[in-house]
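Minutes, structural biology subgroup

Action item carried over from last meeting: produce the structure token record for Peroxidase (Urochloa decumbens). EB confirmed the sequence was re-checked against the source entry. Recorded below for completeness.
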Amino acid sequence: MSLCRSTSWLALLILCSLVASTANGEHHLSATYYDKTCPSAQHIVQTVMASKVTADEAIAPAMLRLFFHDCFINGCDGSVLLDSTPSIDSEKDAEPNGSLRGFDVIDEIKSQLEHACPASVSCADILALASRDAIALLGGPTWNVQLGRKDSRGADKDAAENDLPSPHANLTDLIGKFVEHGLDTKDMVALSGAHTVGTARCLHYKDRVYSGKGGADIDPAFAELRRETCQAGGDDAMAPFDEQTPMRFDNAYYKDLVARRGLLTSDQELYGCGGPLDHLVEMYSNDGEAFARDFAKAMVKMGGIAPPAEMQVEVRLKCSMVNT
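Output recorded by EB:
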């Protein structure tokens, strides 16, 4: 049941007004952080990303997804990059992270940075820069990435199993997940626009196209099309979030929501209640520049989610393992 059928908009607004932003906390970040210690850092990241996305455009949404999944678990700390060891249960092994990719790209960037500026640039900052460049390479906005993050010396597989926003979530649950990190409903709607690029597996959208969950919230022709995709390929059958421009970072995602053609349950939950979120979705669907501006602002805000104060951190020399 969606929020518009279970919770009043007044309650939603009260909920959001009670949230104190924790996105920056004691996290002192700066766009000029590496200007002296590694002035070539951003150029190196941009060069590797341009090469990789030219060879395989799907690397771009994969990199953006890595950054999201990192920041939503104990802050933007590079923990999603760690491999399992006797003392670390890797977040890579959590079910929601099973289809993450792009780790090799991060490793290549890190290798070049270690050659140019040893022990200077954190893996968490590489993720932040690579996701920004990924969006720009697909025609999306760019922004000044705030830098100076450190890498955690541990991972949290349990949190990765339970705390990431689910593709099957209703609006109440989605808002709660974003609120936990100091992100408001405008941030949530803007950041969800990342789904204007990339694909999802039938496993994650079949609840919407097969069951009664969709109902009047789904275009029948779209539901039938996606059922055919699932029938042809099973749970691993891939479908684009945006059929028209699947690898172009634009505002087509919001046009699809208005047309009741959102791929995931969690996508379509953003539209249909007739309240403030509907107005925001409609604005983005009509004004791609407004979406681009708000997405960039929300990415900076999400990128400022700080790890817990007690977390042990460092600048890893290799992104998949802690320093010895």
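Discussion: The first helix runs from residue 3 to 6.
Next step: EB to file the record with the rest of the batch.
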